[in-house]
Automatic annotation (TrEMBL):
GO CC term (a single one): plasma membrane
One Pfam family from the record: ABC_tran
Family of the protein in this entry: Belongs to the ABC transporter superfamily.
Record lineage: Bacteria, Bacillati, Actinomycetota, Actinomycetes, Kitasatosporales
GO molecular function terms listed in the Swiss-Prot or TrEMBL record: ATP binding; ATP hydrolysis activity; ATPase-coupled polar amino acid-transporter activity
Source organism: Streptomyces shenzhenensis
This protein's name: ABC-type polar-amino-acid transporter
Domain ABC transporter: start-end pairs: 6-240
Topology of the protein relative to the lipid bilayer: Peripheral membrane protein
Gene3D superfamilies documented for this protein: P-loop containing nucleotide triphosphate hydrolases
């Protein structure tokens, strides 16, 4: 592996008495794509949120580049600027146009002037194929387009790593492909990425490594061919079989991760 861009060491996170992460060790090399898979409630989102300190770890260390995020003296805002995050729910500002959604954080956080923020916004909208939507409001866009705007907004901040938390789970199936295509492009360009996803085809084709989590620990960590193609652990096999067989998935006990789109 190249020099690790993300390093997680002996990471623990509890909510009250509930120990959600129980000792996570993980490295993501520069330019590497790591897909994180696992059942609902296994701690995938909490892990991502600890990597940009949206959650404060209870114990352990997180490094991004050469900065330790868990060092009490770290300039957390400076480090966080190097980390882009994309959520299942796109979190765009509904009262701002697409272009304004991209320029506002650049101006507020990076103090870019208007012209430069607009230039960077236009360049990143073009990267996700949405130049023609610059003046539209989010409500006028499909879910897939909104998610591509959210990715462009993160890219406009010039991040060194990108974290994706189930970026396609809220989308109608026919809109998933366009979002995955943008993520594939980023991977090809050498972006360092951690992607929580249930898209096994994407994981197989794009990930350098797949990490299977269950119960707050990493059960398996290897190439997609190893972890998805020839899982060594019964828990991994059980998870994958439920994912691939809707009949057994329908009777699973946990509530589904996926939110409906009938709101
Ligand atoms: N802010 C929170 N407060 C209390 N419990 C939480 C919080 N966030 C997550 N949890 C709990 O942590 C566990 C793991 O959640 P999460 O990381 O979201 O799992 P996953 O993303 O794998 O579905 C779940 O039991 C969840 O209820
Ligand atoms: Mg989650």
């Amino acid at each position: 592996m190249s020099r690790p861009e993300i390093r997680v060491r002996a990471l623990h996170k509890s909510f009250g008495a509930d120990e959600v992460l129980r000792g996570i060790d993980l490295e993501v090399g520069r330019g590497e794509v790591v897909c994180v898979i696992g059942p609902s409630g296994s701690g995938k989102s909490t892990l991502l949120r600890c990597v940009n300190l949206l959650e404060e770890p209870t114990r352990g260390q997180v490094f991004v580049g050469d900065a330790e995020l868990t060092d009490p003296d770290v300039d957390i805002d400076a480090v966080r600027r190097r980390i882009g995050m994309v959520f299942q729910q796109f979190n765009l500002f509904p009262h701002l146009t697409v272009a304004e959604n991209l320029t506002l954080p650049q101006r507020r956080v990076l103090r870019r002037d208007k012209a430069e923020a607009a230039r960077v916004a236009a360049r990143n909208l073009a990267r996700v194929g949405l130049s023609e939507k610059a003046d539209a409001y989010p409500a006028a866009l499909s879910g897939g387009q909104q998610q591509r705007v959210a990715i462009a907004r993160a890219l406009a901040m010039g991040p060194e790593v990108m974290l994706f938390d189930e970026p396609t789970s809220a989308l109608d199936p026919e809109l998933v492909g366009d979002v995955l295509a943008v993520m594939r492009m980023l991977a090809d360009e050498g972006m360092t990425m951690m992607v929580v996803t249930h898209e096994m085809t994407f994981a197989r084709e794009v990930a350098d490594r797949v990490v299977f989590m269950d119960g707050g620990v990493i059960v398996e960590d290897g190439t997609p061919d190893q972890v998805i193609g020839a899982p060594r652990h019964a828990r991994t096999r059980h998870f994958l079989s439920r994912l691939l067989d809707p009949a057994t998935a329908a009777v699973r006990k946990e509530p589904p991760d996926r939110v409906g789109h009938g709101d």
